[in-house]
Specification:
single chain; 114 residues; rod-shaped
Amino acid sequence: ATFSGCKAINQCLVDNGGCQGTCVYTGPNQRDCTCNENAVLHFDGVTCECNPGYRLVETVCEDINECVLGCGPHSVCRTPLVNSRECSCQSGFHFPGFVSNILLMGATPWDPLN
C-alpha cells in the first residue's frame, strides 16, 4: 500500500463535534458551533439556549403559545408579538381600568386606577 499523507480530522463528523446545534468545520482540529433560528450560543461554546418567548422542542426553538395561560372568563386571547399575549373582551364585557390590553410575559399591566 502506498502512503498518501496525513489528512485533517473533521471534528464535526464525530458526535456533531460536541455541538448541540450545527457544527461548522473550519479547519484541522477546528470547528465552530452555531445555533438554529431563535436560539443563541451559550458561553460554553457548544450549548444552545432558546431566546425569551421560545422553548426547545427536540432540536428546534418554537414560539411559546402564551394564550395557554388564558386571559380570564369572557375573553379572547391572541399572540401578536413573541413573548406577549393580547387579551380582549367578548361583546358586552370589559377590562376595568386597563389602558392597554397587550400583556408582556413577566410584566404587570399598568392600571391607572391604582
